[in-house]
Amino acid sequence: MSRALDVRELRLTRGTRQILRGVNLHAENGEVVALMGLSGSGKTTILRVIAGLESSDGGTVTAGKVGMVFQFHYLFEHLSAIDNLTLAPIEVLGQSVPDARSRAQALLDQLGVGHRASALPRELSGGEAQRVAIARALAVDPPLLLLDEPTASLDPARRNDLGDALRTLARSGRALVMTSHDDEFVRDFATRVVVLADGEVVEEGDPQAILTSPSHPATRELLQVERTKPRPAPPVYNR
Amino acid sequence: MRRVARVLLATCVAAWATLSVAQAQVLRWGGDAEGGAPFVEADPQNPARLVGFDVEIAQLIAGKLGRTPQFLQVQFASLDQSARRGDFDVGLSGIEDIPARRQSLAASVPYYEFREVLTVRERDRAVYRTLADLKGRRVATLGGTMAYDLLLEAEKSHGITAVSYDDDVHPYSDLALGRVDGVVLDNVLADRAMRRNTGLVTHPDALAVGSYIVITAPENTALRDQVDRILTDAMRDGTLERIFRKWNVWNDDQPRLYARVTSAGVSEPTPPMAPASSAALTWRYVPSLFRAAGITLVLSCAAMALAVALGVAIAIGRVYGDPVTRTLLTVYVEVMRGTPVLLQLFVIYYGLASVIRLPAFLAALLGLGLNYAAYESEIYRSALLAVPRGQLEAARILGFTRMQALRLIRAPQAFRLALAPMTNDFVALLKDSSLVSMLTVVELTKQTQIFATNLGSWVIPGILCAVLYLLMSLPLGYLARRLEERWRMPGV
To answer: Which residues in chain B have their CB less than 8 angstroms from residue A88's CB?
Structure first.
């Protein structure tokens, strides 16, 4: 296994608030790393810094090309599913249109949404939109894929499909880093879990072990909160 | 209690009676004091006071009727309609004796005879002596007058281009500036203009002869007859001569007119031109209405194209620019939105004339385009901001540059959002384009106004004008709705 991501001593302050206080994080090719933590623990911020959307105040991020799947997908609303995938390969990477289209169709097929290639984003269900968003992120072939709360808009059956898809992607040699609130999903599909509290990594290791018998109080609190709160309805995105 | 009521009632009756008497003692007379010397003008020494020969004739009429004159300011082009509505008792303001006016109003005997004369620049004196010499040239006058009809005829017979102004000052100043090559107007106005502008010369030959009259509401023939008597008396006893001599407009034409009028004794004027029936007049104006609608459409499309191009640039500058650019563009938008477009048109056409002499159509296009660009830019700016930031972040991670993201992702979506308000603005622009008649561009509304003045009625011209505007705006609305349906955005 080779290292796709290496984050060292990442620090970020916004005003007087310390959001990240020296986070260390790495991901190897073939891994599915889950970032867990209460709201405000800095999970999403770490992904945004890795993706280059925010700058840090200290520390280093070593990564190659990065792909990212947002919680709300953010597909380009004026383009069909397949055009969402081909835009960057054609315009940024300079691929020919037929090449880009056949690759895009293969990616959509692989994620089980090949039949929705010509649909506009507003015509897709939440699960379909998410798969198209994953396919779009993969279209420029990044070795590292970041996913922000990928299960947030999915029902339980769809969650398992997603988990299988993510595992397949990891097995093909990519590194995946996702944030999640969903400890069952993390236990079933992640290869490693990293627990954050107040901008610091407090615990990390095998999901099965950590989520079954947490050693840090923050992890226990997290699991407590997750188990007692009723599962929220998936957010309404596509009206 | 009852006594109080009685006293109150008596007071009311007394007040009403006083008011009615006051009403009866006043002679309301209408005229246009805007640049109206020597007819009607605010006294330069005391702007609250009116001076001019028409003011003195109104005073004469009121005096003989035992009433107090009270002036009502009415725009020159609206004097006929205003008289018909009964806004004033008598109207005087260099009102011409034309058949349409005699048909639709009660008109007095003519009290002054004028000549339509051609004024040109001093250096063109030998070249442009008649309208025929001005073939292919622009000749200006006041809209809705005999002189304008004369020029419309000359468009056909001599191939000149008639240019209509809303006042009698700017035709001459534009002649001096070289925007037009000749002006045809009453000798009274020409004489005055010659004193104001140097380097102009008026040919003495009359292109046509006309006369001024007093107008009253069509049913008010009794008052008209009284006015006729007062005017003919004033012709006989030299009162009119004294007034006109005082204003330096007395000449040999007047005694001849007075001899004719006093011997006839009734208001049977000599029509200055062959009378035309209203059907014939309508028919004559229809092609010009279509031409004017064409000008409205071309001007609106060109101005909108400019507004869209500039609006896009401003919006992008305000969203992507550095703080200095953003501040400058914000100032531009606020200034253009916060001041009347009419003022902007005047500044561009007349205000900048000493720096750059823009042709009227170009000035109109620029004025409307620059003004609407401010509104368009606000539409585009908010449309750009309405595209979710997340999409731009996704684009950034995928490797798009900022300009690529703008061109391929943000702008196409913003355009769909902007389409409905843009259509709205275009329809508004189509109608606002009527303001450019102030810069002598005869577009649809102006042509309708000229038509209505000469026809003496707004009914047919008004309906034709409305139909033409609708024919232009309805297809646009339809097209925009079709596009919107096709490009419907979520949440819109």
So the answer is: 395, 398-400
